[in-house]
């Protein structure tokens, strides 16, 4: 069976939304691994996701306070099956992102990041997949709020889907 991933970032609860939408909680329940790329804003959401997710991997973002930074750190590196995953909040400007990611995260198959609230899906020159799931609660300049689902089989990332969040 493939491992089911849910990628989140920039939830900003309770700043941008009082709570995660029920659609997102259903996705949490369906996932084997939930990855959150920062900007939780309070530890309450971290605690709630940690209690409900089968496995949670997360980092702190620029809007997260000292407690979240102490609990999570700014970089996470994990293996999901044989896929080498790194998670950060911010990668800098979009120009040159893939080359910077190759330099900063060698031997990484998938880099999950956030910060911009803008979905991103590219492959670096070294073959690393870069994914930003957008935000499920604050669409900014995007037409809809979003998150990403995917599956992992061995070292292969499959079925990557940008999922719109209904209102």
From TrEMBL:
EC nos: 3.1.4.-
Domain Calcineurin-like phosphoesterase: residue ranges: 4-153
Cofactor: a divalent metal cation
Gene Ontology molecular functions: hydrolase activity; metal ion binding
Enzyme class: hydrolase
Gene3D superfamilies reported in the protein's UniProt record: 3.60.21.10
Pfam families given in the database record: Metallophos_2
UniProt keyword terms in alphabetical order: Metal-binding
Entry keyword annotation includes Metal-binding: yes
Record carries keyword Metal-binding: yes
NCBIfam families listed in its UniProt record: yfcE (TIGR00040)
Record-stated family: Belongs to the metallophosphoesterase superfamily. YfcE family.
UniProt-recorded name of the protein: Phosphoesterase
Protein's organism: Isoptericola variabilis (strain 225)
């Amino acid at each position: 069976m493939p491992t089911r991933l849910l990628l989140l970032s920039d939830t900003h609860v309770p700043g941008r939304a009082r709570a995660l939408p029920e659609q997102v909680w259903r996705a949490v329940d369906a996932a084997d691994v939930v990855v959150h790329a920062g900007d939780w804003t309070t530890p309450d959401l971290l605690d709630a996701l940690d209690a409900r997710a089968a496995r949670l991997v997360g980092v702190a973002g620029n809007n997260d306070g000292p407690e979240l930074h102490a609990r999570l750190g700014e970089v996470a590196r994990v293996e999901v099956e044989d896929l080498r995953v790194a998670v950060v909040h911010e990668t800098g400007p979009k120009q040159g992102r893939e080359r910077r990611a190759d330099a900063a995260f060698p031997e990484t198959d998938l880099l999950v990041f956030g910060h911009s609230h803008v979905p991103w899906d590219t492959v670096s020159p070294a073959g690393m997949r870069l994914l930003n799931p957008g935000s499920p609660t604050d669409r900014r300049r995007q037409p809809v709020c979003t998150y990403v689902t995917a599956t992992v089989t061995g070292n292969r990332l499959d079925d990557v889907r940008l999922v719109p969040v209904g209102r």
